[in-house]
Amino acid sequence: MKPILSSLVSLLALTWLSSVISLQIPTPLKHRTPTKLAATEEIDYVNSLLWTPSFKNGERDNKFGTLDKYSEDLSKVLRRKTRTVECGPVKFGSDHPIVRQTMATTNTADVDATVDQVMRCADTGFDLVRITVQGKREANAAMKIREALFKKGYDIPLCADMHFQPLVANMVADAVEKIRINPGNFADGRKDFDEHIYETDEDFASERQYLAEAFIPLVQKCKRLNRAMRIGTNHGSMSSRVLSFYGDTPRGMVESAIEFADICRSQDYHNFVFSMKASNPLVMVQGYRLIAAEQYRLGWDYPLHLGVTEAGDGEDGRMKSAIGIGTLLADGVGDTIRVSLTEDPEFEYAPCNRLAEIAETRLYVPGRPSSSKQDSVPAYEDTRDITSFARRPADLPSQAPGDSVDARGFLHRDGSVVMAVSPGMLAKENAQYLYQSLGCKLAVGMPFKDIATADSVLMRELPEVEDKQARTALRRLQEVNMGVIVPKEELEKRPLENAVALMSLDEAISSSGALPPGAIRLAIELFGSESSESLSQIPSLSPCMIFNNPSSSVSNLHASRRLFESLKSQNSPIPVIHHFTASEITDKNELALQVGMRVGSLLTDGLGDGICLELPSPNPAFTLDYLRTASFSLLQGCRMRSTKTEFVSCPSCGRTLFDLQETTARIQDATGHLPGVTVAVMGCIVNGPGEMADADFGYVGTLPGKVDLYLGKEVVRKNIPNEEAVDGLVELIKEHGMWVEKEEQEGERVAVAN
Ligand code: SF4
Fold it and tell me: Counting atoms of ligand 1 from 1, which one is nearest the CA of 691?
C-alpha cells in the first residue's frame, strides 16, 4: 500500500484508525487471560466440534468420495475459486489480485526500526507485512507499531507471526489485522506430545480437546474483531503428534491444518487462509495441491498463501521460490505469495510481484493471448497422481556396437544439462574458455568431465570441415563423452562424426528416422502442436532423446503435459530435455524466475530429464558459464541433480540472533563446494531447529553472538562464539566424512567469447 495521499482516503483511514484504537486497542496493551470455561462448558464446546472425518481409516473417502482435482481446470489456467478473506483494507481470494507480502527482519520490540522497515516495504509495493511476536513485550510493541504507522498515513495491514504462545496471540489480536499460527507448535507446550506414539485414530483424536481449548479463545477473538488468520503449516515444524501419526509427509501437513480449520469452522469463523510451506519445493507443491484437493472434496474455499521457506538468497533463492510458487500459480492455485529470501525484505518485492504478474498474464481470459495458447493445445487426458511424487522413468542413451564414443555419457541419470554452443566458441583462442565454461576440468589443456559439466552441447551451426582447430576442440568434447546435437540440415552441409542428429517429428517420420552421414543417434524436437497420431510414432523412431520446445503459440505447460501423457500411454522411457529460449530476458533474476516457473513446474511433477537454456542471440549478461550454473541450479532446486551444497537459510526475522546475510555468505564461501550436503543456517533456536527439516548440518543462533551446531536435528556443539562457528561447522563436516577439499582449477579463465 502506498502512503495515503488523498484527503478522502486519509479521512477514511483515520476514521478506521480511531475506531480501532478507541474500541479495540487499550493503551498500553494489557495482558488478557482468555476466559476460562467451566468443566461442563469445556466438554460441551469440544464435543460439539464437527471434525472432518478421518483420512486414514477411509472415512473421508466414504463420505466425500476420493480426491479428484486440485485446480479449477487442468487444461485452462483458471484461478481456483476461493472466498474473500478480509485483512484490514486488503482482501485475499480469487475475486481479488494476488496479494504480495513480506516479513520484517527488525526486532519487533524496536518500534522505530520496525515502523521504518514496514514503511519501506509499503513504499516498495507490498500489500501486507508480517512481524514476529515472540512474547508480551513484542505484543505491546506491535500495538505501538500499528498506531505509529496509522499516524504516518500507512494503513498497510500487519500480521503477527506466532509460535508456541496462545496467550500472546490472543493479546496481539487487539493490535494487528492478521495472526499467523503454526499448527505444529501453537499448542505444543504439552510435554507428553513428544513421548507418546500415536497409532490409532482414537489415540490421535484424543489430543484434540487440548488443541481446541488452546485455540478457541483466539478464534473467538479474531471473529469478534474481524481479524484474519493464517493456519500456516510448516514442513519443518510439524508437531510430534502429527509426525508420529502421519510421518514427515505433505499429508501430515494437510491433516494438521484441517484440524485447526475444523476448530475455526466450529466457531463459525471463516476469515482464514492456509499455507503449507517447506524448503523443499517438491514437498511444498504436494502439500498445497493436497490441501487444495481436500478443500474441493470437502466443499471448502479458503484461500492459499504460497511460499517456499528458507529459499536462500540471490538467483538460487529466486529460482527455488519460482519452482515452488510458480508451479502452483501455473495451475491457478494461490491467492497471496511471499518470496522468503535471505535479503532485506524490500528486495523480496521484485520477485514476488513478478511471479504474481506472470501468473496473472497466464490466466485464461477470453480474447487474451493466454487463452488462445491454451486452446491451441490438442485435448488430452491428464492422469498425473498428485498424491505422491515419482520421477517418470527414462532410459539413458545406450551404447551400440561400433560406437567410437560412449553415448551413455550424452545424458545424466539425475538430470542433464545441454548447452548451446556457437562455432566461434571453438576457435583456438576460445577453446580453453569454452571447456571451462562447460564445467570441464582441465589437465594439460585437455578437458575432462567433472561433477557439474554439461552433458551435451547443442550446435545449431557447425564450424567448417576445413577449420581444423575448431573441429579438434569439438572432437575433444566428444572424446569425454559429451554429445554434440546438431540439426540434420546442418549435418548434411557440414558433416560431423558421432553427432546426434536433431529433427522435427515430421522430418523424422518422413525419413523413417534415417540419419545423415556421420550421425550415430537421433534427437527429436517437438513444438507442441504435433498430432496425437504423430506423437504415437515417436517410440518406433527410437530417438535417444526428445527436445521439448513448445512454440510461443501454445501453452508450454499444457503442451508438455500432453507430450508426457502420450509417452506414458506408450510406456516409452525416452528422455525429454526441456528447451528454454531466453527471448527478451536481459536480467538474471528474471531468467531465474522464468526458468524456475516454466521448466520447474514440469520437473516438480517428475516430468523431464534435463534442460537446455539457449539465448536467441549472444548477450554479455549471460555467459555460457552463467547459463550452465543456472541450469544446474534448476536441477538442484527440483531435487534432481546435486552439484553443490544445498543451503537452507532462513530469511531472518525479529528473532534473528546474528547478521544472517553476512554469516550465510561466510558459510557459503567456506562450504559451498559439497554436492549432496545440506547445510541449514537458522537465525534462532525457537524455530530454527524445527524448521531445518532434512538438513545434514545446522548453524543455529542461540544467544546474541552464540551459535549451536547441529548434526541432523541433534545439537552437537553448544554456545560457540559466532566468530569461531564457521570453522567449527567445517570441522564437524570433516568429522562426519562429508568434506572434500576445494579443487584448484588449472589456469586462469580467459576472456569471454560468444
Ligand atoms: S529460524 Fe528463527 S530467526 Fe529465522 S525466520 Fe525462523 S523464526 Fe525467524
Answer: 1
**How far, in Å, from the CA of 286 to the mean position of ligand 1?**
23
Note the pLDDT of residue 15. Answer: 41
434: Cβ below 6 Å to ligand 1? no
Residue whose CA is at the smallest distance from ligand 1 atom 5: 652
The pLDDT of residue 29 is: 33
Query: Residue 631 falls within a domain, yes or no?
Result: yes
By residue range, what is the domain housing residue 343?
7-21+43-363
pLDDT beneath 70, residues of the chain: 1-48, 188-195, 686-687, 690-691, 693, 744-754
Kindly report the pTM of this predicted structure: 0.89
Instruction: Specify the pLDDT at position 40.
Output: 42
Question: Which atom, in ligand 1's list, is nearest to the CA of 310?
Answer: 5
**For cell 515472540, what's the residue?**
134
SS (H, E, C) 100-130: EEEECCCCCCCHHHHHHHHHHHHHHCCCEEE
**CA angle, corner 477, sides to 471 and 483, nearest 5?**
105
CB-based contact 68:297 (threshold 8 Å): yes
Q: Which of 645, 707, 655 is nearest to 677 (CA)?
A: 645
Q: For position 749, what pLDDT does the model report? A: 45
Same domain, 75 and 94: yes
CATH number of the domain within which 442 lies: 3.20.20.70
Are 447 and 564 contained in the same domain?
A: yes
Q: How far is the CA of 231 from the centre of ligand 1 (A)?
A: 18
Q: Is 453 in the pocket of ligand 1 (CB under 6 A)?
A: no
Q: From the alpha carbon of 700, which atom of ligand 1 is closest? A: 1
652 and 619 inside one domain: no
* Closest protein CA for atom 1 of ligand 1: 688
426 in ligand 1 pocket by Cβ < 6 Å?
A: no
d(CA 516, CA 498): 11
Grid cell 496473472 in the structure block, residue = 360
Give domain status of residue 621, yes or no. Answer: yes
Q: What is the pLDDT of residue 165?
A: 87
pLDDT at 173: 97
- Give CA–CA dist 511/178, Å, rounded: 64
Overall domain count for the chain: 3
